[in-house]
Design a protein that fits this description.
- It is a single chain.
- With 354 residues, this protein is α+β, with helices and mostly antiparallel strands.
- It is 46% helix and 11% strand.
- It contains 16 helices and eleven strands.
- The chain has a five-stranded mixed beta sheet, sandwiched between helices. A two-stranded antiparallel sheet has the order 6-7.
- Helix 1 links the parallel strand 1 and strand 2.
């Protein structure tokens, strides 16, 4: 086994190994992480592999024919580790090659949760508690509990609705397959952990969950962006914080590998908005035209609204108030008010979602 092609990390640098492996490279984990729970049969290799995320691992000793040792541990893309393990003599014993759970990146099947209007009031339930029936904002608390786990580097592992309960008006974790990570989980890992809940939610329950989740953990917004916008690179947060050049770079990076047609339309529309906000007006108009053209085949239901909405913002950024009003005429009920709001100095330009 040639170690020249691998970068070495100790067990406390798994977040750095994650970045390397995401680029298709191999890593050698030389030592166990601090606090590895040697008394638990689940702590190795599961928690190491899940800490890195979207990878496979195999002990180096299983590849070079030496006496079995847990470390060094070879980690890399699943296909690469499968190939190395398949060519080893003798073959590595079970459970190797050990693979992390697959990560979800697209949630567009659930987009009615965030594109539909929720009820104005929060969803509440009544549960028996001390002193009789108690009112519980169940879905908001559910968001709070998952945020607390994720912020402490713990994944629930099986968060569907039956694995939660209520004790004395407080939502608690029921059965779980908790994964204790040795570094902060990625947005994709947290979003994947939330996924089992989504089929049981409606627009109101999802809004309440988000309020609890993001309100408890400020890093949770990146997780919500992963779900609602299929944002794999962080472009939405860059846009939201008005780092438009960064947002453009991150959108382009995702476009390089994005194959979903509807999502490509959305990315191009937001690329146009970011370019317009950055003052790159000619480039913004090109991306707007690309988004509208692609929407004709990939999202025909959105051609008119997407084209007009984005064009209005671009006209505002160009200082063309009359052009913005013309773009919004017949699309929005009060174009004058909308142009005034979006043209304000501190205006937050909305992110397009389909």
């Amino acid at each position: 086994m040639d170690m020249v092609d691998m970068v070495e990390f100790d067990g406390n640098e798994l977040h750095l190994a994650r970045e390397l492996i995401a680029r298709g490279e191999m890593a050698l984990i030389t030592h166990p992480p601090s606090g590895e729970r040697t008394s638990s049969r689940w702590s190795w290799p599961r928690d190491v592999a899940e800490s890195i995320g979207e990878c496979a691992v195999v002990p180096l000793s299983c590849l070079n024919g030496t006496a079995f040792q847990q470390y060094p541990l070879v980690a890399g893309p699943k296909e690469s580790i499968r190939f190395l393990s398949a060519t080893a003599d003798p073959l590595p014993p079970e459970p190797f090659p050990y693979e992390s759970e697959a990560l979800r990146t697209h949630y567009r099947a659930f987009r009615e949760l965030w594109l539909s209007a929720p009820d104005p009031e929060p969803e509440i339930s009544f549960y028996e508690g001390k002193g009789g029936l108690r009112v519980v904002a169940f879905y908001m608390q559910l968001g709070e509990r998952l945020a607390q786990l994720h912020s402490k580097d713990i994944l629930h592992g099986d968060a569907h609705m039956d694995n939660w309960g209520v004790i004395d008006a407080t939502v608690v974790v029921g059965d779980n397959h908790a994964v204790f990570l040795f570094c902060t989980p990625s947005p994709a890992q947290c979003a994947t952990d939330i996924h089992p809940l989504l089929p049981a939610l409606d627009a109101t329950k999802w809004r309440d969950f988000k309020l609890g989740y993001v309100g408890t953990w400020n890093k949770g917004q990146r997780v919500i962006d992963q779900i609602q916008l299929s944002d794999r690179t962080g472009w939405a947060m860059a846009f939201r914080t008005k780092r438009y050049a960064d947002s453009m770079e991150l959108i382009r990076h995702q476009l390089q590998t994005e194959t979903d047609g509807g999502l490509r339309v959305m990315l191009l529309a937001n690329l146009a908005l970011a370019a317009g906000c950055a003052g790159l007006h000619d480039e913004a108009m090109r991306h707007h035209a690309e988004a509208v053209e692609l929407a004709g085949t990939q999202a025909p239901h959105a051609v008119g609204s997407l084209g007009s909405t984005v064009l209005g913002v671009l006209r505002i950024q160009q200082g063309d108030r009359a052009g913005a009003l013309a773009a919004y005429e017949g699309v929005f009920p009060d174009p004058e008010r909308l142009v005034a709001r979006l043209g304000a100095k501190d205006a937050q330009i909305p992110i397009m979602n389909l």
